[in-house]
Amino acid sequence: MKAVTRRLLTLTLLVCTGSLTLSGLAGAHGDVTPQPVDTGNLKKLGPDWLDVNPYRGNPEAIRIGHSAFAQNCARCHGIDAISGGIAPDLRKLPEGEEGDAILQGRFRFGSIRNGVTYMPPFEGILSQEAAWAIRSWLDTVHQE
Predict the structure, then answer these.
(1) CA quadruple 25, 37, 137, 134: dihedral sign
(2) How far apart are CA 33 and CA 28, in angstroms?
(3) CATH code where residue 95 lies
(4) Same domain, 27 and 74
(5) Which member of 2, 32, 49, 94 lies 3.0 to 4.6 Å from 99 by CB, making a disulfide possible if both were Cys?
(6) Same domain for 84 and 112?
(7) CA-wise closest residue to 85 among 76, 74, 98
(8) Signal peptide span per the entry (predicted)?
């Protein structure tokens, strides 16, 4: 029996026995409740979004950002930002202001193509402080 046929039969069996639901498959990607990020130890930034990461190199922001990434981003972008192909590998974000602008835009507004949400917007869900803390951590794992 070919491998593809075996996989289809296995999926069919799992669906028929109730071990797997098709609705669960359809909602698996991105169906996540954002987790709160405690940024109480970081300088407050106010309501207006900054264009440049104010926490770059800040050890506390890096610590918070690593935890925030693990809780809110790793499901799609991979553990420690090592993407498995579902979403972009954020270790490859450009350094400096160019990467800051890309992260800020995606974080705030998400990514929707042809009516399909590839990344939900996080503005109003997670704070600007959380976004820049995540960016600060991503700077530490940057790769060319």
Answers:
(1) positive
(2) 12
(3) 1.10.760.10
(4) no
(5) 94
(6) yes
(7) 76
(8) 1-28
Span 26-82, pLDDT tens digits: 333 445 689 999 999 999 999 999 999 999 999 999 999 999 999 999 999 999 999
Which residue is listed with tokens 């639901």? 21
Q: What is the pTM of this model?
A: 0.78
More confident residue, 3 or 80: 80
- Same domain assignment for residues 20 and 40: no
State whether 7 and 22 are in the same domain.
Answer: yes
Is residue 40 located within the same domain as residue 27?
no
Task: Dig out the tokens for 104 from the structure.
Answer: 């800020």
Provide the domain limits for residue 7. Answer: 1-31
Unique residue bearing structure tokens 């193509």: 113
Q: If DSSP states are collapsed to H, E and C, what string results for the chain?
A: CCHHHHHHHHHHHHHHCCCCCHHHHHHCCCCCCCCCCCCCCCCCCCCCCCCCCCCCCCHHHHHHHHHHHHHHCHHHHCHHHCCCCCCCCHHHCCCHHHHHHHHHHHHHHCEEECCEEEECCCECCECHHHHHHHHHHHHHCCCC
CB atoms within 10 A of CB 142: 14
